[in-house]
Write a structure and sequence with these properties.
Elements (H helix, E strand, L loop, with lengths): L9 E4 L9 E4 L13 E4 L5 E3 L6 E4 L10
Parallel strand pairs: 1-5
Antiparallel strand pairs: 2-3, 4-5
Length: 71
């Protein structure tokens, strides 16, 4: 697990790129294979961003994006 307080990367996502409950997963499909780790789901809806506990990548909503309130 990454114990650094500095993120290694920031991935900005449109609301449409998140799963229905405002969740994404890491590793992101565009990450190189050598940088892979077990897939974890990251809740972006709760605070507008979330950090991967393995690699420290921060996933956040793009500026101006809003999540729909319905399920």
């Amino acid at each position: 697990m990454n114990t650094s307080t500095e993120p290694r990367a920031v991935v900005e996502l449109a609301a449409a790129e998140l799963m229905g409950s405002g969740v994404t997963h890491c590793p992101h499909p565009k990450m190189p294979l050598w940088n892979s780790h077990p897939k974890v789901f990251i809740d972006v809806a709760a605070h507008g961003e979330g950090r991967c506990p393995y690699c420290g990548t921060v996933y956040r909503l793009k500026a101006g994006e809003k999540l729909s309130g319905g399920h």
